[in-house]
Every structure is written in C-alpha cells, then in structure tokens.
Amino acid sequence: MGTRYRRLVAAVLLALAAVMMPAHPAAAGTPADYPEFPYPATSYDEAFRGQFHFSSRAGWMNDPNGSFWYRGQYHLFYQHNPHGLAWDTMHWGHATSPDLVHWTQKPIALEPGVHAGDLWSGNGVVDTANVTGLKNGADDPILVFSGTNGATIHYSLDGARTFQTYGGGRKVAVPAGTSRDPKVFWHEPSRRWVMVMWSDGGGNGADFYTSADLLNWTWRSRYAAGWFFECPDMFQLPVDGNAADRRWVLTDASGEYVTGDFDGTTFLPRTAVRRMDHGANDAGGTFYAGQTFLGDPRGRVVQTVWQPAARGSVWSGNLTFPAELALRTGTDGVSLTRTPVDELASLRSGTVTLSDRTVTPTTPVSPAAADTYEVTAVFDAASATATRFGLRLHARADGTYDRAVTYDRAARTLYGAPLAPENGRVTMRVLVDRGQLEVFGNGGAVSISDVVRFDSAAGSQGLQAYAEGGSVRLVSLRFDRLGSAWGTGEPTLAGNLAGPWAAAGGTWTDVAGGKQGTATGDGFYLNSTVAGDGTYEADVRLRDAVAAGLTFRDRYTANVDAAGLVKLWRPGRDIATYATPIARDRTYHLRVVAAGPRLRVYLDHGTTPVIDAEDGTYATGRAGANVFAGTAVIGNITLGAPGFATNVAGPWRPVGGTWTAPGDGVRAQAAGDAFYLSGTTGTDFTYEADVRPVIGVAAALTFRATADASQHYTANVDTSGVVKLWRPGRDIAVYPTPIVPGRTRHLTVIATGSRLRVLLDGTQVIDAVDATYPTGLFGLNAYAGTASFQNVRLGPA
Ligand code: FRU
Questions:
Q1: What SMART domains does this protein's entry cite (predicted)?
Q2: What's the CATH architecture for 3-36+61-334?
C-alpha cells in the first residue's frame, strides 16, 4: 500500500483510539476486570478457521505483540477487539503454547480502562536478572511495552497472568512526531536493553533508546528511511549459519528489511531494502506487522505475522504459521529465508511419498485428497518442456480447483514471486489450511503468505501435480495431512493447579471458558495436587445441569444450583445453603476459603461470605470441578496461598536440618546438608521445582535417594556460581553460571536410565551419565544456609 494511504489509515486509527480511550484508567487488573472472558464456546471448526494457524477464540485480532518464551511456554499477545469483528478499542489478547503449534487461549492481558494508554502494538521481555527490581515472588518480572506517541510499560509479577500499569502509564520514551510500536531487545555486546520505535518526526524512521533497568530509557540515535513504516522488529542472525558473521536485520510492518551493523547505539544498513514475503504486504492484505519471539530455547529467530484478510463467522484475522528466519547468501547477495518451524511435524499423519514421475497436461499426478495438509514437491525445471507446472489445491472431479501454485518457466516466478531454479530444480512447499495458504520456494528463499477461502467439502479436496504446454519431471513429492492443533491437552482449563487431571465420573471436554462436564448424577474432574487449607476459586456456568461447582479436599463441593442456591456439601451431608437466583448460561465466580474446619464460600467476588460453616471431616485432598445432572462449564480453577504445592505424594519428612511450611512452599535451615524426602519412588521421570537459596550456599532437587539420604543424586543451584549434579563422593557435572542469593530459579531434572539431564530456567545446562543409583525417593536438599522450595512437580521423562 502506498505511503499516503498508510498515513491515512494511521490517522483514522489514531482518531478512533482518541474517541475510544476512557478518561480515568484504573491502575491494575484482576480477572474480575475482564468481563469478555471466557469467550463464547467454539469448537474451532467454523468455515475458514485455521486448524494450525492461530486465531483468537473470538473477536478481531491484528498485530502479534509481546512474543516471548518464559519457563516452558511461548507467550503470544495480540492486538485484539473482543467485542466485535472490526478494529476497535484495542486490548491485548493472550495465548500460550509449549511448542508454537498448540495454543491455549488465555484471559485478556491488557484492557482499556484497566490499563493506561493506547494499548497498541509493542512487545514483551522477561526480566530474568530482576534489573527492574520489581520481582516479589517466584516469577521473573515480565514487562510489556505499548502505547502511542511514546512507550508505556505494563508489568506482570505472576508469570503473565495479570498485568499492572507501571508509573501510572507514564511515557518512558517519547520520539518526536507521531510514534508507536516499541520493540525492546537485549544487546549482549553493550549489555544493555535497546528499544526501537517507529516515528515520523521529519519523515519515516526508527528511534533507538537504551536502558540498563528496562524502566529508564535514553535516546541514542535515529535511522531515517522513507520505506520504513510501523511495527519495527530487530534481531541478529548468522549469515549461512556462520556464527562469526552475524548481521542485524531491521524489518517494518510490511516485511521490508535491511541488514546491517548495530553497535548498541546506531544502526548502519549494509544492504538495499528487500521484502521477506510476496503476499499482499499491507494492513488489509495477507502479511503485515510480524514479530519475532524473544528467548527461543533453541536460539532460533521465529516469526509470526498477522494475516489481515482472513476472517470467519466469530473471529477475524489470524497469524501465519511460525517461521524460522535465516540469512542466506544467494546470487544476488544476502537475504532472509522463512521456513515453517519443525514442530509442525507433530500434526502430520497419512504421509504419501512419490518420486520420479512424468507429469503432462493429460496425466496429472494425484497423490492424495485432504482438507488441511502440507506438500513438498521438487520439479526438474531444467528438463521441462511445460511452460507452467505446479500444484492444484482443492481440485474437484469436474476439473475445477480453488487455487494453483504455479511455477512459470518463462517469467521465472513461483506463485507470482521471482524465483530462479536452484541446480535446475524448483522446490515448492505449501501449507494448506482452511482459509490460509503459505507457499515457500527453494528452502524458504521465497515466501508468499496468502488467504484463500478453500472449499472444505468432501468432493473438493483433491491435490494434483499438473503441467501445461508440455511435460515436467516430478523428482519427488511428499504429502502429509495436518491435523487440528486445537483442543488437545488442557487448552481451556486455565488455572494454577499442576496436574495431571483425571475424570471421576461424567464426560469432560474442552470448550471456551473451561472444562465442560456432562453427567447423569455427579461427575468430577480432579487435579492430582493434594491440598488442604487455602483459597480455591473457579468460574462456573450452568448449561442444562442442575448444579455445578468447585470441589476441594476431594469430598467438599461448593456449587451453584439452578434451584436458586449456593450450596456447600459433602457426600451424605448438605453443610449449608444460601438462597439466591441462579441463571443458566451465566458465569458465576465461586471462592472457597478453607482454614481447618472453617469453610467460607464467596459468590461473584463478594467481600462477605455467603456461607460460613464448620465441618472437620476431611483435612486434605484433590481439587477440581463438579457437575450434577446435566452439562456445565467450569474454568479458571486456582488455588491461592497453597502452602506447599506439589504433586509428589508424601508423607514428606526431614532428614537433617529444620523444615517449615511458612505459607508459600517449604523452607529449610541447614548447617550442612539437609534433606526433605517424599514418600514417592521413581526411576525415569521429569522432576522440577522452583528453588531459592535465600541466604547461604545451595538449594537442590534430590532424587533416587535411600530413606536415610545416605545415597542419592542431587542437582543444585549453588551461590558460588554453579549448577551442580552430584552424589555422595562425586561431583558428576558442574555448569558455571551466576546464582544470586534470594533469587528463585526453576530447576528440572530429566532422568532416563543412566542419562541425567539438568535444566536451569528451562534451558538444559547438564547432560551427564551416571549409573550408580537406578531408583529411589524424590526429595529436596539445602546446604549450609536457608533455602525455600515451591511447585515441586513430577512428570513422565
Ligand atoms: C499495525 C498497527 C500498529 C498499531 C496497531 C494498532 O497494524 O497500525 O502500528 O500499533 O496496528 O492496532
């Protein structure tokens, strides 16, 4: 789109935002401030809904924002209007994924009226070193940058569940002119944070700021360039995989980019402006406002991009499938390549491979029929006599089809984009989704992101390799069906209970807003975490069920009942009831404060309990959801002040030292080595915890231990500056890294036979072999000081 038109769009957006912004934004947000969430239920199966392309469960989305990885999850935020299918009142929507493929819709992260400023595009960073000093618990501070005409900060201290506005929404960096879309990243050589922001002071360009603490920013330089408009992104990549030749890439919203040098202060371009994608690269098109994830655990630069033209009945806008970016030297110099991340493989099935087939106008090759799939086809362009050849997608028996991905030999274009054959060959890789088509040529040398409203009817799912005006040799073809990425795992039961979950009666499925349970009598869905005292919360919605609620200590349930009651009961006894009208298809918030025998039930965030009762029958047990006689949805189940949160069965007992449970986890005071051992034995497993050496030397995970702890493996964080894996008499492996007293780290041990791996904050730091102890007890260890432990979890290896 032309610059003039872009400016017009921007001006309209600005004017709209000025009208929409409330005058008195509140300071902080709790889930109660987000009336739009849960969204209405969906099976993600509507026409044109991407099955492996991310879209918001409901409402409008535009730019991806604040994309980063934190402790095992990719976080994706996005420009979002939850109230309709057009751009309006920008919120930040939120979703998470362990693998860039399967996304879980989360409650809205930033909401106008709750969070200050225009909540427009920006990004997010994890402050692992606590340079902000904002940290107040186990989670690292997470900061997101947003705002127009200057950047504002919102931050989370609970792992991106809730955000607060920093400094009343004060602007921390204000370029001249109109500005927006801050992108913050770490610059290792200068050991500073850098912010790049689009602005139009004196024409289009980027302003660079730096900061040591992420909160105070200093202007450093400006890169002025007419081509450069909105949504800057900046990252460093090796050229042809050569780590000694790393270049900075600066991109804008339309996917135009230059590569060059950046010393932490000033950007110096070294190449001409190029385009990384050849779709419709504008705000109404098929590829716009991309962003890369920070902190990819495999060190990749992974990008996802808004597809504006994609839309369906309850959603509009989706993202391209995450692509890994690289720099490659070709005949015309260094340019970016885009390749779908290899995690896509988890959706593949029904593989078909072919090789060495001659394709002519009368003998097309039809390897398979499918709705959503991936094909990689290699054609020999050098020996071809065909003028055009390629793939026909969603072909029908009558010879029609929805789209052809064509290589034109005379024009040397793939799907309209310039592409020269490589060693005489043309490789086309296509991702075909319900409403999305991505085409990659010659290993990502060319990328074309498109929106196509494919006909998914059974008779319209043919795939053909075809040729026109002559023949072509199909050197090889691989086809894979791609399954739906939605609805696996625990996508909708947002909460903080560790799992695993298990049904005990009834059938339970994932829907928007939580877990939907259907039972003739009582059905339960329970988390394996055993807890006693604490604050339990859940959102409950009756569909046609008589009652549904929140179960805790295995046997107590607080419910809403369509007869017009809130009830606290246990098998055999209604402990107390409270009469109040209860409507179907409305979400009620239930909170239970359990303190010994005193059980209080609160409704819809009320400050006084509607039930305040005593029952001392059950002291501990699992928590979860209950449905009675029909169908209901229960979501967002959380347990606050959980004491010691663990799914490792006890009884836990000290072997040395003093161990206490002060309310948040367990705490050790140790003169030498002190152990806290569970009642659970394991051989192969993943064992993890949040560990904190409060004062003194080390905090650790112990495993395969004997009951007296004379034999064991222990993986620790040690304030002398190491992560260490040891057993009595031997340090098996040591990994030097700064360990600061007082700071919580996440330690993970993956044990498979004699292979013992240790991960620090999700990144593997030790991979060792030791065959001394094959099995034994799980426990915790502290050495010479005070250490605390929380969220101790055991899972499969
Ligand atoms: C790009 C954009 C950004 C802005 C956001 C507002 O699509 O115009 O520049 O921050 O959308 O939603």
A1: Glyco_32
A2: 5 Propeller (2.115)
